[in-house]
Every structure is written in C-alpha cells, then in structure tokens.
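Hi V.,

Quick status before I head out on leave. The structure for the redesign project is tokenized and pasted below; the design run finished overnight.
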C-alpha cells in the first residue's frame, strides 16, 4: 500500500469514527443528561400532579407553613434521600421536592419541555397555599429554577452550581461536534435572566469538574449587581459541595423568612 492510499484509508476510518460517535451522542444524549433515581419510600406526605397522562410525585416537607420553597435537584439526585436533611434545614418553610419524570415516584420520560411543564404546574398548585414562594435549584435543576422564576412571581432564587446553558457545557466537553445542532434539551438559563426579578443567590464550588466556572460566570455576568449575591465554597467540587459546613447556613441566611 502506497502512502497516498494509506492516508486515504486512515482518513476514511477517522471520518467513520467521527460520524459514528456523533450518531451515538445524538441518539443517547438524554441518557447522558438524565440519570433517573429509584422510588424510595419516605415518611413524608406526597402530592401527585397529573400532566399529559403522567403522574408526577412531589414530596412535601414541613407542611402547613406560610412560606414555601420549591427545590429542583440535579440530574441524578434522589429527592427521597435528600428529604430528611432538607426538612431539618428549613423547619419554618413548607418545602416541595419534585421527582422529574422517570425519577423516584414519577412516571414518564424526562425531557426539558415536560419538566418545565411539571414545574409550572407544581408552582400553580401550591402558590394559593402560601404567601411567598422561593425557588432553589442545583446543577441541572438550576435550569428548571430559572425557567420558573422567569415565568412566575418568585420571592428569592437560589442557584447551586448553575450554568449558562447545557449547550455551552456540552460544547466544551465535545468540542469537535456541532452541539448546538444536536442537542434536544438545551436549558438556556442565560436567555431567561432578563425576565427574572427575584433576588438571586449563586453558590459555586471552587473545584467544580462538571460545570466549568466559566459557564457559571457567564450566567453571573447577565444579572445586575444589585440583584445578585455570590458565594464560592472552597475546596469542594460539584458532587460534595453540600457537605461543607457553611453550605446550608448560607442558604438559610439568604432565604431568611421568605
């Protein structure tokens, strides 16, 4: 085999590999984005929402308080496993933990559009029961939290390890592919900031290896300085940020009485 034919063969193999990997990423993109959790029993009351033939499970903590918190978790976060600790950290609020479709006790398949629909349905269902509603979101859930805050009246908004958009996060991870053309679920939080009026708190992990700090900074830059508070948890990463002793204290100080 001469050099020219060898180069051609290698080029064809590289092209086939590139296209094959691109097809794989496109077909299985939601498997990378969502990691459904098991349905674990909890001692807390649950609320069931019905949307488009699916049942959405919501765990209700500290029922009966004047003000409420809606919390939207990360892409592999179990609301049932988090419930005990969250209930203890916010004893003066009724807290609602929504299982995304396919997670925990919820039926269906998670998609950006369906999660947004469920989140707004939850807000509309509980708002008449409370004077003030604050929103919290972590990682993937920050995209859900910003969507709700942009479309409903929110007292305060807390975002833990947020991003500007999943498109930009994925583009950094797969720089050789036209991610903006491939992604179905985009979670473009950056585009929502102009419609958010709530006082906002952003918490970053100094050693975050999942959400690049640049992606969080782009989101920060879109807020007015008067609207935003920022804290960086030092020596912690994306997964263990909540293990820091100051994490919940910072949240409690920000949320206050609502």
């Amino acid at each position: 085999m001469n050099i020219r034919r060898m180069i051609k063969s290698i080029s064809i193999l590289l092209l086939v590999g590139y296209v094959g990997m691109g097809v794989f990423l496109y077909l299985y993109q939601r498997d990378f984005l969502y990691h459904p959790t098991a349905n674990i029993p909890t001692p807390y009351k649950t609320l069931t929402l019905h949307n488009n033939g699916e049942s959405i499970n919501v765990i209700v903590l500290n029922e009966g308080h004047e003000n409420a918190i809606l919390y939207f978790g990360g892409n592999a976060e179990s609301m049932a496993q988090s419930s005990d600790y969250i209930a203890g950290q916010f004893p003066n609020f009724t807290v609602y933990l929504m299982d995304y479709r396919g997670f925990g006790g919820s039926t269906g398949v998670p998609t950006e559009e369906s999660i947004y629909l469920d989140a707004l349905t939850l807000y509309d269902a509980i708002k008449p029961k409370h004077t003030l509603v604050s929103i919290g979101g972590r990682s993937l859930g920050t995209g859900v939290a910003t969507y709700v805050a942009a479309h409903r009246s929110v007292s305060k908004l807390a975002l833990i390890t947020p991003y500007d958009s999943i498109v930009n996060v994925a583009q950094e991870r797969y720089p050789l592919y036209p991610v903006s053309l491939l992604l179905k679920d985009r979670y473009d939080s950056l585009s929502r900031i102009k419609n958010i009026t709530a006082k906002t708190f952003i918490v970053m992990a100094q050693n975050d290896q999942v959400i690049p700090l640049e992606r969080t900074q782009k989101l920060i830059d879109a807020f007015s300085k008067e609207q935003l508070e920022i804290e960086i948890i030092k020596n912690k990463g994306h997964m263990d940020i909540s293990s820091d002793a100051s994490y919940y204290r910072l949240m409690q100080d920000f949320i206050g009485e609502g």
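Above is the designed sequence. The chain has nine helices and eight strands.

G. will cover questions while I'm gone.

Best,
W.
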